[in-house]
Amino acid sequence: MTEFAKIERERQTTEAFMEKLRARGLVKPPQRLPDRHAEAIDGALALALEPEEPRRLYATPEQYRGWAQDPVTLTLDLHAEHCQAGMILVGEGAQVSSLVCPNCQAQGRAVELRKRLVAAGVDGRYLDVEWADLEQLAPLDRLARACGDIRGILDEGESLLLWSEGTGSGKTQAAMLAAKAAIAGHRTALVVNIARLAVEIRDGYGDRSGAALKESAVQRLLAAPDLLVIDDLGAGESDSAAIERRLLFLALDERQMHRRSTVVTSNLRPEELAVTFGARILARLSPLTIIHINHGKNFRLKPGRKSRW
To answer: Is the pLDDT of residue 54 over 60?
Structure first.
């Protein structure tokens, strides 16, 4: 007897046995479930048998172009779905490419820009402030517009002197924002306080360890960037003024020769600066624009602020 014949014989034997049980009433026919259960089961079966929407494993070119134009539109959920270690699969049909994630790329640029700002001396409370965050009283509104063309200004090598009699007028903030605009425009910038540098150089006289700050090194540092910001000029100590004058003359002389822009802030009048540092030094800022910040408001004083002491 073949294997197939054995299986068929066993099936017939089983069927005959079940027929005898049904004839004797020992096997009950299946009962219909209550309607509420039957409906639930029918619904589950219909859902299970419904054809599943194929899951898209990559973004369309249109989606990617939108994300590249505005990385903010690549939301956290979309980013988690599509980004794989900084790359996104993009394509249609069989043509699929792996492209850089615009969101990760934008974050990387922001981190790199922040590092460059800190290295340039734009730090502390000036790091996260933009023109849009400030009250642009005249002539600050003029400076804000000028920062929009910072590359043109640097190409021409134009310099700027911002002065006001009092503190808190916003001149340092404006100078910092000019440095930020330069760095964001892929130029180099440096923010310095000449008085502090002069004190460090003076205090290093006689130090033979090689760790002291040298005038020659500082002069090279000041001469190099596309934009140099000299903050609070004229606020130094009288016994280090000679060092300040030497640093300024040599650095500004080289900067003028190479048409590199300089922004100076001071609480002294231009005439007082000329007396303190010499007319030859100010002449080396040419072509120079002098702006008097005289809106009369002190931004450091917050209206209605109560002391916590």
So the answer is: no
Spatial neighbors of 87 by CB under 8 A, at least 6 apart, are 98, 99, 100, 101
43, two tokens: 């619904």
Neighbouring C-beta atoms of residue 246, cutoff 10 Å: 16
3-state DSSP helix/strand/coil % of the chain, to nearest 5: 50, 15, 35
Say which residue the tokens 């822009």 belong to. Answer: 261
Query: Cα angle at 260 between 257 and 266, to 5 degrees?
Result: 110
Q: Which two tokens stand for residue 175?
A: 């100078």
Total Cβ atoms within 10 A of residue 164? 20
- Per-residue pLDDT band at 173 (split at 50, 70, 90): very high
Calculated CA dihedral for residues 186, 191, 194, 196, nearest 10 degrees? -140
Encode burial over 56-72: b for 16+ CB neighbours within 10 A, e otherwise: eebbeeebbeebbeebe
Percent of the chain with pLDDT over 90: 54
